Amino acid sequence: MSSEVNWVLDQLGDVVESVAEDYSLESGDPVNVIRVNRTDSEVYDGSDPNDMTEPLHKRKEDLERGVFIGARLADRDPTPVGTEYDHRLEAVVSLRIEGLTTRGGNYGHVDPAGENGVPFDVLTRRVRRTLLESRSYPDTGTPYTAYHDHVFTNEASLSAAYRDFYHYEIDIALRGYEELP
How far is CA 39 from CA 100, 120, 124, 153, 180, in A? Predict the structure, then answer.
């Protein structure tokens, strides 16, 4: 797993906890928000794999366990800058949030009313806000390389394309510099 993906998933730990505290299912169980490294389908918070590359309708059983937030490194682009051999660095982490409607408390963990699950728009706002409030950046693990900011790109809510499924995607572009000798 890349340091950039780790950083994004680490930042979202507070979202996992706050949703579990603030929302419950009809059974009284807390809403599960499960973080997934989409590069290797490993669940960040446990040991069950989850292949987020499969279409939503084929993963209905998985989505009955919780709302999934998956991240993967989509692109890493070092671009030469200046007269020395330095690079402007941009790493893009693709983030996907997926959930299934509760439909009367019988299936997933998303409920627009917030009575038997988390409202999907509340969850996406918490994710966005948590990442925007972050004022630290991942350690690249490479000497003389550091990120200095991040921006959101390609934000899209694709929920309207599905009846019972909720789907939201956003790219987080981490920007920085690499000083070469």
Answer: 22, 24, 21, 20, 29
Query: Is pLDDT at 55 greater than 90 in this prediction?
Result: no
pLDDT tens-place string over residues 149-171: 999 999 998 876 667 889 999 99
H or E, element range at 86? strand 86-100
Q: Hunting for tokens 């790109």 — which residue is that?
A: 153
Q: What is the pLDDT of residue 47?
A: 46
Neighbour order of strands in the sheet with 33-37: 42-43, 33-37, 67-81, 86-100, 165-178, 145-157
Domains, the chain, with CATH or none: 3-178 (3.30.2000.10)
Q: What angle do CA 20, 22, 28 make, to 5 degrees?
A: 70
Contact assessment for residue 100 and residue 117, using Cβ atoms and an 8 Å cutoff = no
Q: Is the pLDDT of residue 48 over 60?
A: no
| Global pTM exceeds 0.85 | yes
